[in-house]
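Re-run with default settings, no changes from the original entry. Doing this only to confirm the output is reproducible before filing.
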Amino acid sequence: MKSELKLFSTYQSVGTLLIEAGWLSTFLEVRGEGYVTQWTVKGLKRALAIADLVEDYDLTESIGRTAEFTAACTNDIYLRNPSSSGVRTPSVAASGFWNECLRELGIPLNVEPQWALVMMANSAGRRHIGGRVILTLGEIISTCTKLEPDSLVQEVAA
């Protein structure tokens, strides 16, 4: 339950960042159902490009895969996990685009918000209708099964 609560909080935080950056015009929680997002043209273009990265680098496999991808994109040896599943080296274009998105949104080198961005953008890339996407509670909760142990269970620092 703690991991689900932190995950919802992370999705809300990323939703707020997406609105502030002009990627979303609407991010509404539908109690007990999930979230409804309305992507702007700019945001939908970015989400579709991120969805391509997700597919190319299999970023929805696990939260660790997303962390490894970011580490490879930033060349941060301190973020790299030698026991990881082995993300192939991103292209210069993929690295530049991912880093640009993280900077534009103000997403730190913290894997939980990156994971939420991956899942939200991938959802938009798979089934947008006029920029509107419904991200269901079940989909959000199902992401918990792809998280590595204790990745979201830790308490949020006060």
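Helices lie at 2-20, 41-57, 63-74, 92-105, 111-126, 137-142. The longest strand covers residues 24-30.
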